[in-house]
Fold these 4 entries.
Entry 1:
Amino acid sequence: MADIKHRDKICATPIVLIGMMGAGKSSLGIRLAETLDMPFRDADREIEKAAAMSVADIFEQHGEQAFRDGERRVIKRLLSEGPMVLALGGGAFIDDETRALVQEKALSIWLDVPVDELVMRVKKKPDKRPLLKNQNIDAKLQELMQSRGPIYQTARLKVDVSGGTHKDAIYRLLSALSAHYG
Ligand code: S3P
């Protein structure tokens, strides 16, 4: 186990990763959880399990509002399950109720990545994300970042995870966490 300053304090509270599509909430979340020896959950995967259908199908068949309602319920349940690293979908923290709950029960971390890098990342898997379907990805991500940025900004911590490798990003996350509890 890596020697992580203030590990006990870090692991005593749920860590919730927020940010735009493509910021690395899931891929970094898995690695962060492994490094800290905490459970990992991905809110979108839990919504899919609960609904027995994919996020894309929920959007298509029931609409975004139904997805947001399910998302709120699932996150509430997950946050009652004790400390874990939890990756949220990009829009979850924008919901007032979900955000209030996250801020009450967890340490929120905004994974900040500039839009041009997000565009390159999400273009690799364009079908995975219903909000980007038939859209100019560049323009849509700019628009979302403009409206969501000020709300993401209210996260307890903000960590720049742009450039570099996953290992670099985990190092930055652990440094921010240790500094927070130091
Ligand atoms: C969304 C992001 C997606 C998923 C859904 C809506 C959003 O998750 O929850 O497609 O509103 O930004 P990722 O951020 O993991 O792509």
Entry 2:
Amino acid sequence: MRQPLHSLLGTVLAAGYLPERASSVAEGVDRIFGFIFWLSAFFLALILALTVLFVARYRKRPSRTEPEPSPSQNLRLELVWSAIPLALVMVVFAVSTRTYFRMSEPEAGGPALRIQVTARRWSWWFEHPGGKGAGDLHLVAGRPTELVMVSTDVIHSLYLPDFRLKQDAVPGRFTRLAFKPILPGRFTITCAEFCGTDHSRMTAQAVVHPDQASFDAWAREGTQAAATLADVGRAIYAAKGCIACHSLDGTPRVGPTFKNLWGKEEKLADGTSVRVDEEYVRESILKPGAKVVAGFANVMPPVPLDEREMQGVAAWLQTLRDGP
Ligand code: CUA
């Protein structure tokens, strides 16, 4: 496949001084970076050269008389210098958007490794499938990965320079990142949003295992966490009385059943539909009246849960599906 000139240029020129590309989205990010960098460098050089030229050429001389300022406008010139930047900005927009969307949905190529990330002052916590929690992020080379993150206090930002990835963790909502690690090894994670005294020490490691077997061996070793996230969710279901209205066997009661609910396109009373994911679950727990499922009455009271309990409910709902 022939590469467009700007991307070829960007790839070549931005490659030398950046860390090795450790994820599937890194090349796209580098291309955009290189393109914007060299575009800016070109215009900087052009403007500086013209400034020097004009200063020399039109400098004040004793022999020279000042011309009268012209009151007329040059419409064509103004259109040209508006149209060229507009076209360039649209090119930047188009190439950036493609890469940005790649970071929002896991790639094809097997079930994604979904990892729950908790940011707090001043550390990271990663909960891997199977319930193993760790202060370091464990990944599998070549396996599509999705990080779903929360913050328990202030805004943090998960930054993986080798992966060319950065995403804020925001209190009160779930944020996500999708990518595929492509290089086995250990990489640095830092926090990229100033979050207080020990912001600069809020680091961790991303450990990319060469294959699934190596990841599984790591996941088995050591003692298991006292309670997995799914256990937390199951306990809330019993403790908060959700059980009275939401069945687990597929039978609708006062509210929809939880069986096979996760990931479903749910038809709402107002005629729209919504996919059941973390954000929808959070909203439905905190503001049950916001999105009422078609065929059900708006009768559920809000249930205030903290971030860990929210993560727990989301993790537990995912275990109630028949399929993957
Ligand atoms: Cu967390 Cu800066």
Entry 3:
Amino acid sequence: MDLSRRDFVKLCGASAAGVGLSQLALPPIVQALEKAAAGNPPVVWIMGQGCTGCSVSILNTVHPTIAEVLLKIISMKFHETIMAASGELALEAQDKAAEEFAGKFYLVVEGSIPTGADGMYAQIGTMKGKTRTMLSEVLHLGTKAAAVLAVGTDAAYGGIPAAKPNPTGAKSVMAVFKEHGIKTPVINVPGCPPNPDWMVGTIAHVLLYGVPQLDGEGRPLLFYGTLIHDNCPYRGYFEYGVFAKQFNDDGCRYKLGCKGPETYADCWKRKWNNGVNWCVQNAICIGCVQPDFWDKYTPIYQSLG
Ligand code: SF4
């Protein structure tokens, strides 16, 4: 591999600076990934309680394209939304991957895991008359995987399904692992949904250099290491007490409910929709990458202070 981790971090960090366009397309990263991924690391992607928004978000990755990710970088063995197989055939492919690549495959978990009613609130399928639940799959595959990526706030922290009164007993991957003594490393990539760069960038880091440096909430510092409020273009207004009263006013959006003062992510420079815009530009930050989202940050348009 010719690309040092230092250069990789620099490229990811610089990717959004100013231009707002991801530079993950830069040939050195794609080439290094292709080289490192010789044999294409197997990935099993399972989905529990969620809206499929995380999958839709990663399908929007532009640099590299999702076709490059799927065809050149990883080998997707199971993904309900994009795979052609269904029923027992699909589950057989998943079982085969888990056996054949035990200790080597990467498990991506999207959505939270309902633990109530023996996990029956989220069923993955039926195999030889036996129901498989999200809970049973996470426990089974989680012990066999090399590492787990908990993508989206639901998988990372419980998210909206775990909001009070949490009737299904929804939990995060880390919480389920802790309860069952599973030691497989978990990397949280929260967001509702996460930016495609955060997911592809984290996968790239894991493949090229191993588990990235994480913050206290299990998130890669590479993407979640800065406070939105400290980097917001409206921060000057905040300091001078100039607050917008409605969305087309000039001024800081704090009094409209902005959660930027408590939210760690690089949306302010990476932006969304291939660098076109971001939440604070058009509305407010809703704190969707934070562990306490949803309960702590609602009502959405209520000010923090
Ligand atoms: Fe920007 Fe929101 Fe902080 Fe105001 S409160 S400066 S809009 S992040």
Entry 4:
Amino acid sequence: MSSAERTARILGWRILPLFVAGALIPLAATGSRHGLASVIDVTPVATTAAARPPMGWNDWYQDRCAVTESEILKNARELVSTGLAADGYDTVVIDDCWMAATRSTTGALLPDAATFPDGIPYVAKAVHRLGLKLGIYASAGTATCAGRPGSYGHYTQDAETFESWGVDFVKLDLCHLPSSANTATLFNQFGTALSAANRGIVYSQELPVRAARSPGSPTFTALVAASSATSNMWRIAPDEEATIAAGISITQRLEADLPLYSYASAGHWNDLDMLLAGNNIFGYSLSAQENQADVWAMESSPMIASGNLTSAASLTVLGNKKVIAIDQEGVQGRLVGTQGSIDVIAKPGSVLLVNTSSVPAAVRYKTPGQLTNVWGDGRAASTTGGYLYRTLPGYGVLMFTVR
Ligand code: GAL
């Protein structure tokens, strides 16, 4: 972030630099739709991790509490055998339910002996031998969301345990916080313990995401501001729900994230949650899986998949190198124009057109250069007189590289 942007952020202004010269009319530079709140005081946590948005796989949307050691190791091997690890998907995250129901006599977290019989250090070593990193889940409260032991009262002990086990990435949830607790303070305390144990561990936080249902709400934005100083990535969106259609979920996440662009920078990322490519429980269509990857990439969200890695869709969607490159460029896209229900979001070298309504919408977009669709045959998009004419279906998404 430039010093001008940081100053603007602190003063609560919204600034809107125009990356792509030929954007659509009119520019939506007013703050009412995406206003920012001021930053609150936190102690920045020293971290050397996540210079680019983390990439990998997490079991949660596939396995929930049925996660096992063998399932984690199978997916780690599949990241390598599919070539996705070489594309950058290098972190395997064990989500909730890996812990035994009680701590040890010295208060340490223990793995569930039935599902992780060889223990986490064994899993970490096996994952490291594959050239990958291991992530693990914990909760800042007295219990995890699934009711396993929480880390409250044990932050230093748990951070040291994770470090001693060889864990490279910690996802901290916020279920079962004491009612008087201040979320940002506790997250900061855990981060301080984690960076004291090992500054290289990636620290992922889960914000009270229900608040994110009101994009730009000052309470939520203040938490994002705190997280951007204390962690490497922070969840800004609620869990996926099977009852919410793919297009609605994807566009709602985008709308919630657009006002938060100034908090993203190298080592600090707004997290839109997991990619559902190859997930047969949610059953997104192929185009919805592509749309989701487009939005995550334009927003430089971490790309953590939670599906069957060997499915054809996983290979096509997760393995799209143009999309990965846009994500890993590490600059969050910004809203540069709106026309009816169409949002235009851009960053250097790429542009995303999104229909935020269920009703199909025609768009005329003045192109800033040669557009190439990131999906399909990879040929240049046809334009007329310097304009791209397209009709986007309800919740349709189009992403192009721009030269
Ligand atoms: C939720 C979180 C999910 C998953 C789950 C585990 O709060 O959003 O990603 O971690 O807890 O119980």
